[in-house]
Amino acid sequence: MKNSIQHIRAFLAVAHSASFTKAAIQLNLSPSALTVQIQQLEDWLGVVLLERSPRQVSLTAAGQNMLGPMEKLLLDLDNIVSGSRDLAALRRGVVTLAALPSMCSSVLPPVLRVFREQFPGVEVRLRDVVAQRIDALVREGEVDFGLGVRARMGHGLDFEVVWVDRLCLFVPADHPLAHKRSVKLAALAGQPIILTGRDSSVRERVEQLFASEELPLVPGLEANYMSTVLALVRQGLGMTLLPESADEGRGELVRVPVDHPDVAREIGLITRVGHGLSPAAQRFVELMRNANT
Question: For residue 185, what are the contacts with CB-CB under 8 A and spacing of at least 6?
Fold first, then answer.
């Protein structure tokens, strides 16, 4: 039946007021129009809901049985509508994203701060994981979107470049290479380099760079997190190649550009093909894009 919610509201108005006249005024309807709506609802349900007499209107047994469920139905509907409007207006909601650890410790915190200031009712859940895990989380629908490197973008995933990150050499201030304007990979060949873990996209890129130049890569110490790698470098235990976004800005290390055309890596938005973002997630993505302009 068309407009069934309108008919249910009409029934509830009459049931609560025990008067067609009062209910018609409340609903801004004529008494005859209200009577038609009640009759249509009764015809649709196949039962009589109201006993009508010249003096009063009362509920039938069927009407009594229907009253509670119909009240709950309208309450649930009102909650759905109210919740949807809150989500659309970004008054509440949840944004879940997976991102590379280097992004979580560098470019994302300022974006998170601005987002929280603008939309305090929206919760953000951030998962810092390696590149391969980001793709899996997005594909499985466990996060709204990912922020990672370009990988095999088949299998239902899209990639949109948001940032360009470049590998740099990090050394202590007293290191012989600290005063160079730039350094070539050949100058690093044969020297121990502190590396990130083997499942890291940074480790993979470093290995690819040395292999492409047919240069020997000598692993020194190894750590899973870039913050740990930088701490080892600060202690004078070696040098490392990390993205420029890993720079913690503490001033204890020198960042030297690497003179090689392939040190840049694209960091992008990873989403599922055919799945739009929620209003809150879309706004978060817009803030990320603005942060890079």
Answer: 209, 210, 213, 215, 258, 260
pLDDT value of residue 113? 92
Judge contact between 8 and 70, C-beta under 8 A. yes
Q: According to the model, what pLDDT value does residue 1 have?
A: 47
Q: Identify the CA nearest to 203 among candidates 188, 193, 213.
A: 193
- The verdict on 102 and 73 lying in the same domain is no
The pLDDT assigned to 90 comes to 56
CATH value at residue 63:
1.10.10.10
Residue-level pLDDT at 147: 93
Q: What are phi and psi of 40, to 5 degrees?
A: -65, -40
Tell me how many domains the chain contains. Answer: 2
Question: Which domain does 127 fall in, by range?
Answer: 96-293
Residue 63: the pLDDT is 80
Which of 26, 59, 88 marks a domain boundary? 88
For residue 205, the Cα-to-chain-centroid distance in whole angstroms is: 27
